[in-house]
Amino acid sequence: MKLCIAEKPSVARDIAKVLGATTPKQGYMEGNGYCVTWTFGHLCTLKEPHDYGPQFKSWNLFSLPIIPNSFGIKLIPNKGVENQFKVIEKLVEDCDEVINCGDAGQEGELIQRWVLQKAKCNKPIQRLWISSLTEEAIKEGFASLKPAEDYKNLYLAGNARAIGDWLLGINATRLFTKKFGGNKAVLSIGRVQTPTLAMLVQRQKEIDAFTVEEYWELKTKYRDVIFNAAIDRLKTLERAEKGLEYLKVNPFEIVSFEIKEGKEKNPRLFDLTGLQVEANKKYGYSAENTLNYIQSLYEKKHVTYPRVDTTYLSDSLYPKIEGILQKMYPYQDLIAPLLEAPIPKSKAVFDDTKVTDHHAIIPTEVPPSQNLSREEKLIYDLIAKRFIAVFYPECKISNTLVEGKVGTIPFKTSGRQVLEPGWRTVYAKEPKEESADKEKDKEEEQTIPEFVVGETGPHDPMIHQGKTSPPKPYTEATLLRAMETAGKQVEDEELRELLKNNGIGRPSTRANIIETLFKRKYIEKKRKNLIATQTGIQLIDTIEDELLKSPELTGEWELKLRKIEKGEYEANLFKEELIQMVTELTEKVVYGKGKVITLQEEEKEQVKEKKKREPAQKKELQSWEETQCPKCKTHNLIKGKTAVGCSDFKNCGFKISFEIFGKKLSDKQLLDLVLKGKTSKLKGFSTHPEGMTEGVLSLTDDFQVQLN
Q: Exposed, middle or buried: residue 528 (CB in 10 Å: 0-12, 13-18, 19+)?
């Protein structure tokens, strides 16, 4: 008997169906010589400090650093996890061969290997490695199973990452909490979390220290075209007015006129970070929500594996492209022109050297179904249009550059015209993105007539007054990009691709890092902007060790982890380096000066009195899309016409109607029911079977609503 272990029940069902293992059993499916079982993501975790000795249960500054001789794993203490592990353990014992069907990535490899280690598996192990969950992909995967040994380095990198995060997270968090927390709260430190917070704090300080300065610029209008003086901004109105007087008495002369034709490259296919950035810019979705929506689309077989960090496809995919495009029925008007000729095979799209475990996110040959949530449809639309756009011709543009002068003062202007829209056709019906510099855009869009070098004439000079702008706060979109490039400001796609190996965090973990900073109250959101709180700022100010908060140095660790993955660096060496760093950090902090950090809650207490006198502001409710399903705890909720329910309703089944026992509930009351498991006391029930008209609504253990 062959045992297949998937990462979650829904994936196990897809695999079992293809293999013909259709007989349901307790915790697995059976048939056709296969047993197919599953984990629930992580079943095992690294042991906690107290598992290595009771002396580590209490937090003591002088018992640090905690460095186990060898790291052990244990089951996550949860009844469901324990029961499922017993099923896996028994199946491992009875089978002839194990097929690891875990998520095809570093985390997926780690999850499965830990479970097999815990189950003392000594059977031969093969690896299923697929990029989508379509029937065809699963069949192809089983036809070309790989030996588990091929993925040993991937496991070693995942294990080194987990141990590194444990060493730094456990020790530094205890260290800073005991030294600076004032016995009031935990001060959380993390290998990726802390440098990410440091970037936000640095930006916050730049904004706070910024002084707005006024400036003046000279402009002039000649033949209905606005020209800008090509000189430094003027710091005083007096100098600007002198300049204006000078301009008034001199004619305008054209010095050069040049039209350059150019091309705008097609956008790249999406990796996970690119998709999260676009969804945040366009729809305001958080990185975590976008990850949930794309994961759901993947599990519904509409898109390929999402946790990827490449924007390229492998050459072997080229023959399948036409078939995928033909199945994307809602986009046929955009696809029809592509299918009139062979699909171009560009190195900007297909490049085996740029593809590691997986290729970029693209649609599969399974077209989107009608039962997708609104958010899933919008995310699919982003992926579909990007996929179509990469095969269109480049956009041809013409740039007009004109230089002039008034006396000795040089002037210039430029204009841009689209000659052939090419890939921009795909986005023609979409609203134009708002730019921060509307004035500049307006000038770029002006129609520039034919000028002749040497021509002169009258003109209308003017003064433009402006103010310098502070640096922009991070949004989730710009923070994700900064994490990807370890804090370097990079617009160029090619350069960004090169820097990815040194980015901080992995595409799949960055969303979780941002959410952790929110939960710890180190950052907060104001509209789309991410703002460091006083607690967050004080925490970063307290950390003197650059290693802990430097994005560049954390990026170097990330590079070493990727080298471990490729077999170019020793996992043990990475562990030893972190042990040395943690040991040195502990000595420095324990014997250094102490101070107490003011926590966010305390700040709120201090300003409470002032706030009492102000009119109460209406508290903004958490959106349903940000609310986790209380039943499956995997997907988020969505709001329909008559009820809110799990976005994976088909598998999970959780739903609450807006009207219960004849009473229509407000969003606040529904949120209380979902988040707290009960409402406050309510009146106005009219259709309760026992005639009750008031009481508290609560969720039962099987997630039904009852009135008490």
A: middle
Amino acid occupying residue 264: E
The first and second tokens of residue 65, run together, are: 């650093």
What Cα–Cα distance (Å) separates residue 471 from each residue in 196, 203, 211, 704? 17, 7, 11, 50
Closest CA to 209 of 471, 569, 23: 471
CB 471 within 8 A of CB 482: no
Question: Which position has the token pair 């980015």?
Answer: 503
Query: What is the C-alpha separation between 589 and 543, in angstroms, rounded?
Result: 9
- Indicate if the pLDDT at residue 318 is higher than 70: yes
Tell me, what's the pLDDT at 134?
A: 92
- Active-site hit among 34, 155, 305, 474: 305
> Side-chain half-sphere of 287: how many Cα atoms within 13 Å?
28
Task: State how far the Cα of 696 lies from the Cα of 680, in Å rounded to an integer.
Answer: 6
State phi, psi for 70 to the nearest 5 degrees.
-145, 140
CB 50 within 8 A of CB 66: no
φ and ψ at 686, to 5 degrees?
Answer: -120, -10
Q: Which of 36-40, 297-301, 439-443, 476-480 has the lowest mean pLDDT?
A: 439-443
CB neighbours of residue 237 within 10 Å: 13
Do residues 202 and 387 make contact, with C-beta atoms less than 8 angstroms apart?
A: no
User: How, if at all, do strands 474-475 and 23-25 pair?
Assistant: unpaired
Of 220, 261, 260, 263, the closest CA to residue 401 belongs to 260
CB within 8 Å of 470: residues ≥ 6 apart: 206, 207, 210, 212
3-state DSSP assignment of residue 2: strand
> pLDDT per residue over 195-220, tens digit each?
999 999 999 999 999 999 999 999 99
Phi/psi of residue 269, each to 5°? -65, 160
Q: What is the pTM of this model?
A: 0.78
Q: Of residues 405 and 499, which shows the higher confidence score?
A: 405
CB contact at 8 A, 543 and 597: no
Comparing C-alpha atoms, which of 514, 500, 480 is closest to residue 273? 480
Which residue matches tokens 């040991």?
A: 583
Q: Assess contact for 126 and 147: CB atoms under 8 A.
A: yes
Tokens of 388: 């179509």
- Residue 220, helix vs strand vs coil: strand
Contact 127, 147 (CB under 8 A): yes
Q: Is 427 a catalytic residue?
A: no
Closest C-alpha among 37, 65, 66 to residue 52: 66
Q: What is the distance between the terminal CA atoms of the chain, rounded to a whole angstrom?
A: 51
Helix axis angle, 272-283 to 287-299, nearest 10°: 120
Handedness of CA 367, 654, 630, 7 (dihedral sign): negative
pLDDT tens per residue, range 487-535:
776 666 666 666 667 788 888 889 999 999 999 999 999 989 999 999 9
Helix (H, G, I), strand (E, B) or coil at 258: strand
Confidence of residue 683 (pLDDT cuts 50, 70, 90): confident
Write down the pLDDT at residue 49.
95
